[in-house]
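Contributing new records

If you add data, match the layout below exactly. Sequence lines come first and carry their own label; structure lines follow with theirs. Keep one chain per record. Anything else will be rejected by the validation script.
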Amino acid sequence: MDIVAQPVVQVQNLRKFFRVGFWGRRVTAVDGVSLEVQQGEVFGFLGPNGAGKTTTIKMLMGLIYPSGGTATLFGKSIGDPAAKAKAGFLPESPYFYDYLTSREFLRFYGHLFGLMGSTLEKRIDELLELVGMTHARDLQLRKFSKGMLQRVGIAQALINDPELVILDEPMSGLDPIGRKEVRDLILRLKESGKTVMFSSHILHDAELLCDRVAMIMKGRLVTCGHVSELIAGDTTHEVEMVIDRLLPEALERIKPLASKVVLQGERVMAVLTRQQDVDQTLDVIRSAKAKLVALTPHKTSLEDLFIRKANGAQSAVEARVA
């Protein structure tokens, strides 16, 4: 008999509303979200700014109380200390006392988890090496770049060797190098057996990292599933060709076949949407003795899915208002 593993995170119909303004107008931030995060996976919680991602994560971490619904960590209530002890958390906009060094900062958080002495010092050294911050262990945090702060923040989230790591917008505001460093860290966490849940509005990073994703818009969950299934990876929408030494008469034969043609100096970039047009364009290139520099199929991405869902969510809102 197969035993079904207990989800690490389980959310059922989670809701949160706030009262704002003088008259206490009710604003719904999270509206009936249900999802599960399984052990050992990287789970992306995606959506635009203001969609309800941070509010949902704050409820999971016990920082704010739900207005309705239920949520569990490791099968226990989110308020259970035993469940919280197995989780590590990096908020979206953490405050670090910037006159502490990396070692002092991690030592402080280690004490909160009851770690002491040589055990704690060994753990600090391991984490600084993991996040690539050994060289800055005695440097004050006020001298850190944004990327360095994110890395030491992730080290803080790992000080208790958690089974679940929750990161709220870990790549927001980072340059491409900083984003790659954080991506590599998340992959290392997965390789070490951790379960990682992170929120983001940077869809390319999520597509590279995640086993499964959930998309939230205007407080409502609009889709959830495996990345490969959601983006239908074998579906090609268009093909981009870059052609060199194409004569003007050959270019005129290609233009009716392409949805877009762009001249790039002596090169031509053509975008085609139908397979038969791709075949005909290749015939034209061969007959004109031109050179095909690149042929790039553009497949469905999370960004395409996100835009479709966003348009659908907006249409639904407009329909309700009407």
